[in-house]
Amino acid sequence: MYRIPVTVLGATGVVGQRFVRRLANHPLFEIAHLTASGRSSGKRYQDACEWRLEGDAFMGLGDQVLEDSDPSRALSPVVFSALDTEVARDLEPTYAQAGALVFSNAATFRMDPDVPLLVPEVNPDHLALLEVQRERRGWTGGILTNPNCTTTVLVMALAPLHEAFGVEAVLMTSMQAASGAGYPGVSSLDLMGNVIPFIKGEEPKVEVETAKLLGRVQGGQLREAPIVVSALCHRVPVLDGHSEAVSVKLKGDPSPERVREVMAAWCPEPQRLRLTSAPSAPIRLHEAENRPQVRRDVEMDFGMSVHVGRIRRCPVLGIKFSLLGHNTERGAAGGSVLNAELAHARGVLQ
Ligand code: NAP
After folding, report:
1. Which residue, by CA, sits nearest to atom 15 of ligand 1?
2. What angle do CA 151, 109, 113 make, to 5 degrees?
3. Could you tell me whether strands 167-175 and 228-232 are parallel, antiparallel, or unpaired per DSSP bridges?
4. What is the pLDDT of residues 41-70, one digit of tens each?
């Protein structure tokens, strides 16, 4: 059966390896090219890269030769980008210009008004911005982005509440995993037994991306949601999984029971369409008062659902709850692949 050829840019990195693991046996996509930096290109995947995930190392692609990230050589109709922000700035547009649809994890183009910033459960209609982008930039391909991992987890919990009541204000304190910083990331000597109350650029990203994601696209124009967000981000010695303590002000001041009902009933487009990477329930609600917990919950549903527990009254904003999601799956590679599945289901990808 025909599968759409794809290129993975930055295949040796933390996110790139997760792309390879997700795509190796995907029913719609087939890996054609793996790329990395000039330090790695020309080498076999298994010689250039230390595989850091559990399970089948290199997913049968260990002998594949890494290529330069260059669309004149490693081009496919679909490109998954796990490049760093500055590298993405130069490379992703060259792929879009060459006709590829680039599903990017980098922050570089996320906030451009003609670039879809997508979480398929939250704002699938923002795909319409792709047409605006192509017209404005003269590209036959395009760039579609997924949000920062912390934002992704947050908007998954806020979206049903925004639909049902309207979100007015959010206070979010994160406890973010080490893998969010890439490899080697924060030195173990700095992070072990410690909490670091600063992640460069993270708080502003969460604050602005949330308003874009919960906004509306009308007549090819994005109108951001009028939501005030305050983010306090911390790095903690956890491997994978971002935990977030969330307080939210909702219109009409609904009860915790009502909030729980709305989250439990939420069945957005990826679940209705049963997209390959979509978890059966986008939000897993926990009853136990000591859940969700990173070690016990984050790998459920291949890291694609988010977990909510302890929904209760907040004396400041009205409602508060504990939230958890997988930063390199839902917040990175899995989120991008789900974006591509949505684009395929909506006929943007043939
Ligand atoms: P990473 O582990 O540092 O990997 C970076 C990748 O980019 C490597 O494959 C590297 O190849 C390649 N690369 C570096 N310079 C290059 C160049 N000049 N030309 C071509 N390729 C180059 O980073 P990561 O954590 O996977 O993050 C990748 C992207 O995803 C970043 O934009 C990050 O902000 C974003 N993101 C990460 C997370 C997360 O939780 N980690 C979550 C959401 C989004 P070599 O091996 O050859 O150096």
Report:
1. 37
2. 90
3. parallel
4. 999 999 999 999 998 999 999 999 999 999
Question: For ligand 1, which residues put their CB under 6 angstroms from it?
Answer: 10-16, 36-37, 39-40, 69, 82-85, 87, 105-107, 149, 179-180, 182-183, 327-328, 331-332
Q: 36 alpha carbon to ligand 1 midpoint, in Å? A: 9
Task: Tell me the whole-structure pTM to 2 decimals.
Answer: 0.97
* CATH entry, 149-326, from 3.40.640.10, 3.30.300.330, 3.80.10.10, 3.30.360.10: 3.30.360.10
Look at the block and give the residue holding tokens 């795909």: 127
Residue closest by Cα to atom 1 of ligand 1: 13
According to CATH, what is the number of the domain 4-148+333-345?
3.40.50.720
Domain positions in the chain are: 4-148+333-345, 149-326
Question: Could you report the per-residue pLDDT of 139-157, keeping only the tens digit for each?
Answer: 999 999 999 999 999 999 9
Strand intervals (E) in the chain = 4-9, 29-36, 67-68, 78-81, 101-104, 142-145, 167-175, 216-218, 221-223, 228-232, 242-250, 283-285, 306-314, 318-325
Amino acid identity, position 151: T
